[in-house]
Amino acid sequence: MTSGPSGPSEQKGQPGLVSAALSGLCPRCGAKTLFAAPAGLADECAKCGLDFLALERGGRFVGILTMLLALVLILAALGVDEWLRPPLWASFLFWGPVTVASVIGALRFYKTMWVYHQYEEGQQP
Ligand SMILES: [Zn+2]
User: How many whole angstroms separate alpha carbon 42 and alpha carbon 40?
Assistant: First the structure.
């Protein structure tokens, strides 16, 4: 993570979605205020007061996305199991963190995408 003296709010235009998702940047002011928890949006921007909760409303595919991702990971885990036949403890040691990290990452990316999309919609007259 880079944390220079001049934040992303200095930049012109919108930051990339990936970096926005990684650092949780507010779509309006670019402050790192979008996430209050690893995969949980803050209620509003602590800096400019943009209402994230209102923007998030309607993001109801999050549950489906999480389930799909979990399914893919379980299938992948079964595939690796068939292939390498690792000891059970190794499977848990590997797939536990991988699953948690993937779900959190996907949720972050999805929510950021959704909030940015909603924000841009709201900007149009
Ligand atoms: Zn803001």
Answer: 7
